[in-house]
Sequence to fold (160 residues):
Amino acid sequence: MIVRINNEVEYDKDKKMLKSDFTSYDISTPASYCLTLLIEKRDKLVSHEELYEYAWRRFGMEVTANTLYQNISELRKALKSCGVHEKLIQTIPRRGFTLLSDDQPDPTKNEDDKETSQIITRTKKLLSTCSDKGVWSKLSYILLLMIIVNILLTLSLFIT
Fold:
């Protein structure tokens, strides 16, 4: 099962992997169960007890609060490495967590500027072929995109 998160990241439940256009990130089995439950109850409070039950107790394991928080931290790190920088997983102190809905539109779907959209899409495809498990940082991608756009703008000035 593949679920799209925040219009930027795909979560493959079967492979326990988060994947963006630029990188992929394998997550642990308990973290995968935590993310699955957060996705199923998106925008709702998921209590600590629900997470313990879903990710560990049903398999006969008891874990500490520290283990739960380490798995949530792993999910946040994985999401960040895939390009989701806002706090998608919110902590509700002493109660649990919630996964916020992705209300943001996909910038490549902007109908007003099809040429820019095509450039972004091509650049993402190019970069995804160059990427090797996060070798390039997000800043490098942005810099490369800016250089490509600058070259295209410069060429368009000479053509007209």
The beta strands are 2-5, 9-12, 17-19, 24-26, 46-47, 89-92, 96-99. DSSP finds five helices and seven strands in the chain. Confidence is low (pLDDT under 50) at residues 104-113.
